[in-house]
Amino acid sequence: MQSKRELTKAGREKLQHIIEMCKSVEERSLDPFLIDVSEIISTVKAYFSEWKIPEDLCLDAETLHHLASVIKLQSEWVRHRSTSLYTDPFLLEEKLIRITKEDIVETFLKAWHPIIALEQISLHSIAEALRYWESLLPLKERWKEFSSAEIETSFATREELIKQRILRDTAFSEELDNSWQELKRQVEMKGKDGKIHYWDFVATETYEETVHKAFMTSFLVTYGYATLEIHPLEEELFIKPYEKPITKTGNKQLVSIPISVSVEEWMKWKKAN
To answer: What is the DSSP string of 191-236?
Structure first.
């Protein structure tokens, strides 16, 4: 059984951990719905009677303050999805499983608005269409013309990545540190509030160099040199460097964020700049 001192210490550590998780959500590094609000409220209530000094009460109040910010972000996310008529694909799948085939057909017929009707074409056009389809070869004969080429896949070597200009012919740790220093310089010159728009940092005059910078930026985030800040409502993405590399800790797994660095996105950035 824990002593009163051990219980108080454990409560402080839990509240501090809750605050750190909420801050990660506020900085757009975590999905706000990964935070179990009910569980956190139960934890705060469980330890509230143990606080006797002002510092502990301030820690309790700070926890509730950050939890309120998370609830606000959850509310904004739900409001955005509801106003944009968003429907979760899993809910649609569940509805389709439950309804009968007859109901599906009836719903389809109500929503079906064909753009061609029999009254809009002539008998001559119908005859031409029939002759066309009758002259076509069977599908098994036509498909012979489209033979798929077999492509052998293998792992890319470091030399091949260097040749394709994805990696540089320098030590990876040195290149990673150079990218980090460059990010901090760019934030100081063009950034705001200690961060810079993702495309303003990775995009360059050539697409090849842009892909390479995006590649190195992913390692800056993975190794704790920087963090991504996502604004889903505004559809904006920022990157924020740390003064010192940090190590991610915690029992919850962080969300993986795929970012498309396509030629179309790069061309859009060039036109805007």
So the answer is: -BTTBEEHHHHH--SSHHHHHHHHHHHHHHHHTTSEEEEEETTTTE
- Is the pTM above the cut of 0.70? no
Query: Tokens 């961060």 map to which residue?
Result: 195
Domain 166-272 sits in CATH at 1.10.10.580
Alpha-carbon gap, residue 199 to 155, rounded angstroms: 29
Strand order in the sheet with 236-241: 196-197, 236-241, 226-231
Rounded to the nearest 5 degrees, what angle is found at the Cα of 217, between the Cα atoms of 215 and 221? 125
Contacts of 239 (CB under 8 A, 6+ apart): 183, 195, 196, 198, 201, 217, 220, 221, 226, 227, 228, 229
Q: How far is Cα of residue 177 from the mean position of the Cα atoms in its chain?
A: 25
Considering Cα of 148, then 152, then 155, then 161, what sign does the dihedral take? negative
pLDDT for 174-199, tens place per residue? 888 888 888 888 888 888 888 888 88
Residue type at position 267: M
Task: Give the list of residues 6+ apart from residue 232 with CB closer than 8 angstroms, or none.
Answer: 28, 77, 80
Residues 235/199, Cβ–Cβ less than 8 Å: no
Q: What is the structure's pLDDT at 213? A: 85
Note whether 226 and 257 are within 8 A (CB).
no
Whole-angstrom distance between the N-terminal and C-terminal Cα of the chain?
A: 64
User: What DSSP string runs through 22-74?
Assistant: HHHHHTTSS-GGGS-HHHHHHHHHHHHTT--SHHHHHHHHHHHHHHHHHHHHH
C-alpha closest to that of 20 among 66, 68, 71, 75 = 66
